[in-house]
Every structure is written in structure tokens, then in C-alpha cells.
Write a structure and sequence with these properties.
Layout: H1 2-28, E1 35-38, E2 41-57, E3 60-63, E4 69-74, E5 81-82, E6 87-93, H2 97-129, H3 135-164, E7 177-179, E8 184-188, E9 196-197, E10 210-213, E11 218-225, H4 226-229, E12 237-242, E13 249-265, E14 268-278, E15 296-313, E16 318-320, E17 323-331, E18 338-349, E19 353-358, E20 366-370, H5 374-379
Antiparallel strand pairs: 1-20, 2-11, 2-15, 3-10, 4-6, 4-9, 5-8, 6-7, 8-10, 11-14, 12-13, 12-15, 13-14, 15-19, 16-17, 17-18, 18-19
């Protein structure tokens, strides 16, 4: 019994040893390499670049007061539409005391001169009516009297303007009424009732009452890398996508390419570009009504195009220095496919497919990527 057990154990060990040897031998043998076979296709290719930027109104106007004073009333707020000439705010004038005193003195002096001119005129008129003085002398006196009346009127208006910012003769166009200079949307009103404001002069820019812009005339402003700016031309079409407006795109036309680098990012110079955005009056979903100044946007620009060309996946092309090669299938009927290495001339690439200009016919097949076994896939 013991002898039988020893024989059985030895046989089992021998079987395990032989099985292990066979398993290792089979796994050590090189596996056949298999590639997928690809057929060229005729398609349209385009090389596109994407530029990030923002949407802005072409013209944004800062509305400033024509006099210094205190805001007593704001008639408009940000987001409202305003027409050119429409009143945005009202001011109360805080007069300069020196100018006020000078204006008051001028009024008093003009009244004194007017009283004297009136007395002389009435006296000379009496003499003229009696024929005691000539018409020439009478006309001189009357002219002096008229000039004195006009001077008194001007002095009074100047006093009212200095004191109140408005006079009886220009009440409809008073400087105390701050009016919009263009028609558009009020983007910002950075002041409040009670704030002091000053007019623009040589020493300062003045206080901005409101910022107004025409939101129907928009531009896209962004920066493009120096490696791509040389391919741009004024007038090129663009597609604008606004991040805040999902699934809404607007067309645009490139109208400006900066001749000077505007910034440097990652060691590469960036050049500013501008494009006129075409916003339909009634775009999809009414999106045009909700465009706001400063929205982030991306512009898609087609740099190159090639129509109806023979293409293959770029991964099937072998690049060697300045030359390019593909492996063309020669014998599809054999057990193992036979490929011929052939030089080709490539053209435009969109990053996935590449144009083959010469060296390959559209009815030929080329070698693609490796076909992985299930074991290889599991290892990955």
C-alpha cells in the first residue's frame, strides 16, 4: 500500500512539473502582432483654433456733468434704456463764493448804468421831440440806453447761472440737468443722491454720473497665440459662443489684428484681436436681449480648409524627420497580412485625420493601430 502511494505521489509531481513546463513554454512563445486595417475616406478637413475673450460694446460713453454740484435726483438706473438727450440726473449748484460775489457786483453796476442811461434817454427824447437836438444825437443816446438794458439782462442771467445753474432764458437746457449723449443701455450709475460731483476740467476728468453703451453694436475682444496670428486675415468669419448663454452662437467678422504683442502667457506672445459680433434682433430664445457687457466668450476661427480630399487617421502615419510613410496592405489573402512601407505627401490635419495628397489611392488599405488581446486590455 505504501509503495502504491509513493508511486502515485511521484506521478502527480511529474504531471505538475510537465504541466508547468508546457504552460511556461506556451506563454513564452511570441504572440502574433495584429493590426487593424483602415480604408482611406474622402472628406472635408478644417483646422480650427479657439480664442478666449469677452463681449464688449463697441462704444461705452461716460456721462459727466457740465457744472459742479450735488445730485438731488436720479431719474434712471443701471439696466434701463435711455435715449440721447434724455435726463439721467438733476443737480443742485453749490456756487463758488468769489464768482457769486463778482456776479452780484456786476448786476448792481449794470443796474446803476441802466438807470443813468434811462434818465439820459428820456431827457434827450424830450428835447428831440421839441426839435432842439439833432436826430444823430438822439440815436446815440437811445443806443446807449439799449446797450445798458442788454447788459443788465446778461448780468442778471449770469448771476442766476452762478447761483442756481439755470436762468429764465435757458431753463429747458439747464446745466443742472445731466443728459445722456447717446442712445443705449445704462451699464452703471456709480453715484447716489447727495453725492458731490465736479465737472471735467484741465486738472481732473470730472465725476462720471452714468456709463451708457449701445448694446446692439458689440465686439469680441481676445488674445491669440503668436504661432497662429500669422494665419489670420481681416474679414475672416468667426463663431462666437457665450458661456452664460448655453447652446447659443453668434457669427462675427474679424476686423482688427494688433501689430504688437499685448501680453505674454507661458513664454508665448499673445496678440489682441477684435471682431464685430452679429447679434440678430430676435435671436434664438431671445438671447440677444440678455447679452451683458463683459460676458466671457470663445471664438472659433477656421484657419485652413481642404474640401473632398483623401484622408486617413493621423495615427496611421509614420513621421520620420521631414518624411512621412504609411504601410499599405499588399496581400490580404494570406494568413498574415503583408504591408508595404510607402512614402506619402501629407497636407492639412485637424488633429484626428490627415490629408494624403500623393502616394495613396482611395481604394487601397493601410495599416492602423495594434489590435490588443483581452489579456493586454486587462493589463492596461
Amino acid at each position: 500500500m505504501k509503495k502504491f502511494f509513493r508511486i502515485f505521489l511521484a506521478a502527480l509531481v511529474a504531471i505538475l512539473f510537465i504541466g508547468t513546463f508546457v504552460f511556461l513554454y506556451l506563454n513564452s512563445r511570441p504572440k502574433p502582432v495584429r493590426y487593424e486595417t483602415l480604408s482611406p475616406s474622402v472628406r472635408n478637413l478644417s483646422k480650427t483654433t479657439v480664442v478666449t475673450g469677452k463681449i464688449e460694446p463697441r462704444d461705452e460713453v461716460a456721462v459727466k456733468p457740465q457744472i459742479s454740484g450735488i445730485i438731488t435726483e436720479l431719474l434712471k438706473e443701471a439696466g434701463q434704456h435711455v435715449e440721447a438727450g434724455e435726463v439721467i440726473a438733476k443737480l443742485k449748484v453749490i456756487p463758488d463764493m468769489n464768482q457769486l460775489a463778482s456776479a452780484q457786483s456786476r448786476v448792481r453796476l449794470s443796474r446803476v448804468n441802466l438807470e443813468q442811461a434811462k434818465t439820459d434817454y428820456e431827457r434827450q427824447k424830450t428835447l428831440y421831440d421839441k426839435g432842439l437836438i439833432s436826430a444823430n444825437d438822439y440815436e446815440k443816446v437811445r443806443q446807449t440806453y439799449n446797450q445798458a438794458r442788454e447788459e443788465a439782462k446778461v448780468a442778471q442771467e449770469q448771476l442766476e447761472l452762478t447761483r442756481d445753474g439755470v436762468s429764465a432764458s435757458n431753463a429747458s437746457s439747464s446745466n443742472t440737468l445731466v443728459r445722456s449723449t447717446i442712445s443705449g443701455i445704462i451699464l452703471d450709475v456709480p453715484v447716489k443722491v447727495g453725492n458731490s460731483v465736479i465737472l471735467s476740467n484741465t486738472f481732473n476728468d470730472g465725476t462720471t454720473i452714468a456709463s451708457v453703451a449701445d448694446m446692439t453694436n458689440l465686439i469680441f475682444r481676445g488674445n491669440i497665440d503668436e504661432t497662429e496670428v500669422g494665419r489670420l486675415k481681416v474679414g475672416m468669419p468667426m463663431e462666437i459662443s457665450i458661456g452664460a448663454l448655453q447652446d447659443v452662437q453668434f457669427s462675427a467678422a474679424l476686423e482688427y489684428i494688433s501689430p504688437k504683442a499685448a501680453a505674454t502667457t507661458g513664454g508665448a506672445n499673445q496678440f489682441e484681436i477684435k471682431a464685430a459680433v452679429n447679434v440678430p434682433a430676435d435671436s434664438e430664445g431671445g438671447a440677444a436681449r440678455f447679452i451683458r457687457s463683459g460676458y466671457s466668450a470663445t471664438a472659433s476661427i477656421v484657419l485652413e480648409e481642404a474640401d473632398h480630399v483623401i484622408t486617413i487617421p493621423e495615427a496611421a502615419v509614420e513621421f520620420s524627420g521631414d518624411s512621412t510613410f504609411v504601410y499599405v496592405l499588399k496581400d490580404a489573402g494570406s494568413k498574415e497580412p503583408v504591408y508595404e512601407r510607402r512614402a506619402v505627401t501629407t497636407g492639412l490635419s485637424d488633429g484626428i485625420n490627415i490629408e494624403i495628397r500623393t502616394g495613396l489611392k482611395k481604394d487601397e488599405k493601410v495599416r492602423g493601430g495594434l489590435i490588443l488581446s483581452d489579456d493586454d486590455k486587462d493589463k492596461q
